[in-house]
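Example record used in the benchmark description.
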Amino acid sequence: MSHTARQLTITTTAVAAALLLTACGSHQPEPLEHGTVKKKHHDAETKTPIYQDRYRETNCRSVTTNALTLTGISRPSTTGGSGGRSSTTGGGGVSKVKPGTPNKVGKGNSNGSSGGSGGGGSRRVCDRQYLGRVQTGVHKTPEAWKVLIVKGDRSRWKPVTEAKWRTIKVGDRI
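Model output (structure tokens):
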């Protein structure tokens, strides 16, 4: 037998064995459709409100950082300073904070200073004030009628119509 034919035979045998195992090993019985009614249950319609929290931006400011900002945050200066806020240029890793106008996007630091070398930028930072919750919708769950049917050692909750649920009694065979 040639090398190619042997590889093909081995591959085919492996695939056939895998198909046989999956076909025989994962046999699920059909859902139980008929049996004796042991219990009846009715779920009423429910309506659950959906809420969303509302906030307002306050105390907005434009924060300019330079390349040394991360170094200044990870190893704070021990020689004193201005508490992490500085209005001077070249602060050596200190963020420069400029008050902005509320609810408007600032375009950066407008005083003309570059804020250091090595890249940097400015971004708008605002505090959030909680205003409360507002109802934005309602989630509805419809009514449901179901019966517990049993046959041998198997059981299942089977959904039924309202009319059928009202006519079925516990102990009936369906």
